[in-house]
Queue: 3 jobs
Job 1
Amino acid sequence: MKVVGGSASVPLAREIARELRAAYVEVAFEKHPGGFPDGERYVRLLGSVADEHVVLVQTTHPDPMIVEFLLLTDAIHDAGARRLTAVVPYFGYGRQDKRFSEGEAVSAETIGKHVAVAANELLTMTIHNPDILKTFPVPARDIDGIPALGRYLKNTDVDLLLAPDGNAIRFAKTASAICGKPYDHLEKERIDSYTVKITPKKLDVRGKSVAIVDDVISTGGTIATAARELRSQGARRVIAACVHGLFVGKANVNLRVCDEVIATDTVQSPYTKVSVAPEFAAAIRALG
Ligand code: R5P
């Protein structure tokens, strides 16, 4: 088995290779220093993958990483790999998982159709709606990334986990089972892509250290609104923990209300503090 990492996921791909005791195949991402002037992607495998089972690790965010993913799948096939397992740590476009209004594309299906087609199977993590994987052209499985956050939180001074909305209760519950801290939740209403409204609810947080647990932090609006509610109720310390840290728009400003922000390496960022390599390595070993 050999592991290849796209440029969105090199550190995680290396960690997965280490966990699996598999060779890591380096990739050149620039033909000339500085890359193509028009921003087009380029890949060249710098090691052999002939007759190998290759694990390609690449998050499909931001958009150029989708193109790079497609280039890598063809490069791996053309170089004679016998099997290709696609690992998409963060599945970009996963949140548009249905046609909310007539005429829309079901983006998650569209991206799945194209990125999975050249692979023998696909693994992703904490995707918004795992049911969408049934529409993919090859077997696809969702791996839970929350246990990695639970492992991290176990060694902190956190007293309580908080789900910022009803959908996130399952995340707080899973993390709670691993780190052994209790959990509670708030109710959120999304007004638009940048604004959310949290229904005030009395929480037992006075003087406590609280970790807000969610699958994705995008603009940080959800976390900031929940964090302000916690502060107003006397929380001593507020931590934001997510699997996928996109941190777009004014996220850095929004997240100033938190004492600490924790994200995994599904999306590499300055907040990446915990690796999901053990989760992916276990799932790859289980493929047989
Ligand atoms: C929503 O379904 C997700 O679980 C997150 O709460 C959401 O994507 C976070 O977005 P933002 O950081 O922009 O509030």
Job 2
Amino acid sequence: MTDTARADRLIGDILGRIHQAIAEHDVTYEEFQTAKQWLIDVGEAGEWPLFLDVFVEHAVEAQVFGDRRGSQGTILGPYHLPDAPVLEAPFELPRRPDEAGDRVEFTGQVTDEHGAPIAGAELDVWHADAKGLYSGFDPSLPEGILRGKVLTDADGRYTVRTILPAPYTIPEDGPTGAMVHAAGWSPWRPAHIHVIVSAEGHEPLVTQLYIDSSDYLDNDVANAVKDELIVRPRRKEGSDELGFTYDFALAQARAAAPV
Ligand code: BEZ
Ligand code: FE
């Protein structure tokens, strides 16, 4: 199918479904004008990435990766920064000296889809602080904290030390938050740690690990929780640190499309 033919069918279908909803819900001119102003407001507030990642990305992820081999992925979201540094041992994500939150160490192995360890795989890790804020996006946090990349050792093993993040709400003071409140929905995401695992010759795995004790696991505004991604941090014996393990299996890279 040519690009024009696909655009015709896809855009035509989306518009057709909007027209159908207008008819089914007997939409008024007042509601149309409110929706038009809201769409303008989302653009002016720079919230299109936020809106799309909260309400649409999970469906794209399920569609594109529904049949993926290896570990489960989920949405990327809007708070990834690609230029985090590669950390040196002991692989602690940078944090403030008085960083709040339970200390946690997570470890595991990166393998291919058949269980063979992958040395030198990269884990790009980022998460919110104990108040649910992300560095690089909330100006009250120092740049670069709670973000970093870690490489696997010769046996494909990795270790990351950090603090447990808190659940957070998507921003509630802009048009996306206004829409969520207008519809009476919850704005919360459960506590999670983002990871992108990549290695040459393999499909990058964009995923999130959800903390089992978190609220909102069954009511995530972004609809991105999967059972396989829930981890169980537990107190390590003789330590005040929590620990959990998680192994990642990467699928082989899909063959390049013929040009
Ligand atoms: C996140 O996982 O950080 C996220 C995902 C979608 C919307 C907002 C945040
Ligand atoms: Fe997040």
Job 3
Amino acid sequence: MIGDQKVLFSGMQATGNLTLGNYLGALKNWVDIADEYLTFFSVVDLHSITVRQDPAELKKRARTLLTLYIAAGLDPEKNCIYYQSHVSGHAELAWILNCFTYMGELNRMTQFKDKAAKHADNINAGLFTYPVLMAADILLYQADVVPVGKDQLQHLEITRDIAQRFNAIYGDVFTMPEPYMGKAGAKIMSLQDPAKKMSKSDENPNASIYLMDDPDTVIRKFKRAVTDSEAQILYRDEQPGIKNLIDIYSASTGKTPDEVVKEFDGKGYGEFKMAVGEAVVSVLKPLQDRFAELSKDKAYIDGVIKNNAEKAEYYSMKTLRKVQKKVGFPERIR
Ligand code: TRP
């Protein structure tokens, strides 16, 4: 809480090109609930360097992501949209929280284990303490709710454990954050392997719809989407490919899976795939147009970056100063 307002914090990494899964599963949810909270939406570039990045590429992608936040419908006058690296409080609080987090806790993080296996040549300390930085992001703004995907729930749990531990020692310093999971059905799977999440790091370009894919590409990818030989459009686990297409159609049109099943009763897969493709195109087209328009206005985006970093700085400093005082750092002499 800040004053009498509930706070929402979330962030995304600017690694890889955003997919339809990121949009329908996260960004769109943010837009839908943003009005109810004092919000902070960060481009978490400090997290990104836990894996080696090309500097020019990272910078470009970070700006694209920040612009996409706005193109998706987050009003930067009302929502604080900023780069994590512009607000030093994230790193400063992370350091303090590192001293309240146990190696054993971090060792249990499944994402660390996965990433360590994937980047065996670069298992750096930042990768290990990634969840602590995430805890700092959240606690720095006294967030009440944190929209996250399932894969981040464990990080939210450890955030709560760290907050609890700190509060138990120093009194009520941090708000206890709750995960916000969004609507069911928003988890979008790969078009080529519906057992896997649609991912921006998938090597097969046909597996994911990218937000910047043009209409022809979108339609082509849906035509090639893996289904089954059941020849019936039903919403059930036995038909994961079709189920995923129903979820995508449902999230794109606002219809429930039941309504979608009724709508396509007796229809063929080919026709259904086309309809899903077209529904997705009509979601992406306005987003892409808005993105193109915003990208042209460098001064506007620069202004957003500057003003919102200042706003984030202001709120973050309140928490940081309080924490520094609690742990016994001497007050500044002015
Ligand atoms: N780790 C998150 C992810 O990869 C991104 C993230 C960083 C985040 N800090 C956060 C999400 C704070 C929510 C709150 O998806």
